[in-house]
Write a structure and sequence with these properties.
Layout lengths: L13 H34 L1 H6 L21 H7 L15 H8 L15 H8 L2
Length: 130
Amino acid sequence: METPMQSQPISPSPLSKNFVFGILIAAVAIAVTGLVVFFATRDRNTATQATAQTGNSVVAPLIASEKDSDTDGLTDAEEAKLGTDPAKPDTDGDRLLDAEEVRSIKSDPKNPKSKDPTLTDYEWVRKQSR
């Protein structure tokens, strides 16, 4: 007479436990990386709208929530205080953004020749960088 086989629970091998654990760690790492990239990109796009469009971090608005109609880096409120045109990124037409003139070059964004009466502010900047 044959004896019935008793069923014994099959325990997972250490290899399969490590494999599942590795997959779980990889999934968490991918999720965390995705969240970091998402929030970093969202914050950068919100806070530096002008930078993304001009490639110049100097012209990023001081307060991201304020409107910058011409995306020159000066908010419409700043443009009103300065008397520059909020619809034109380069009010005086000298090839420099209004924010570059105000924050970096320290020239008058309403006068194309505020640094030197013989040169436009753009020409003056190029001459200084030589």
